[in-house]
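Suppose a colleague, Dr. K., hands you the sequence of a protein chain of 287 amino acids and asks what its three-dimensional shape might be. Before reaching for any lab equipment, you can write down a predicted structure in token form. Begin with the sequence itself:
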Amino acid sequence: MKKLFRKRNLLRLLEYSMITAGAIIAAFAIEEFLVPNTILDGGIVGISIIINNLTKIKLGLLTFVLNLPFLLIGMKKMGRGFILRSAYAMVVFSVFLEVFADLKQVTEETLLAVCFGGLILGIGVGLVIKFGGCLDGTETVAILLNRRFDFPVGQIILIFNVIIYGVAGILFGLDRAMYSLLTYFITSKILDIIEGGIIQTKAAMIITDCEAEISEKIYTELGRTVTIIEGAGLMSGRKTILYCVLTQFEIMELKRIVHSVDGSAFVTISDVSEIIGKHIKKKETDQ
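The predicted structure, expressed as tokens, is then:
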């Protein structure tokens, strides 16, 4: 029991250490490459950069304050671990935006700022997401809309960002909007490399003997339904396979749920290129 407790604490320490590193790297990319060259990130950070340029309110403060309502919205709908990790990541990110604000920008060449800013930002955001957090409240909204209406998370985030870049084009010039959009695509490609396709839907297969408890926790904590498949192992005999479709942002929370119930469960995660048809979102007793 002590060994399992120690292992969980070490894993939690690793998670928060990597989230810290990712948030710091992302803040460095924003303040040292993008902001000085009037290049926007997407989501809440992009909105914060626009307001910062117009009002000179500190970017770190804006980012934290604007993200706070989205965390509160997701408090009851997302997993507790996801919200805690995301809140921590946003605090670290906001603090280091202010730390890096006083440093001299790395380059005044816009194209270099786009390429290296997008690259470094993708690494930072990728680390945060890989270890179960997020830096932007629009991602929380995108996940909730995905659960309710089946809209792909990636498309929702893209729509948000296109609107933000459109506003940037009106305020700062069309070239700034195009540079910002190019940065977004570079960041997205780096995220694909680090996280295996962040905007892509994921499928989890869980082989376990505790199917009832795990499936109930997935439903109550993540809002995802589970398909239960009967199977048999060559050496282990009867097994139950749980199949669940979810987003990249929910993977870490799914792992936590599974291993809190069944430490010996076997879990595989794969990409889903397309979903055809609808799935049941609620049990009949909930309707």
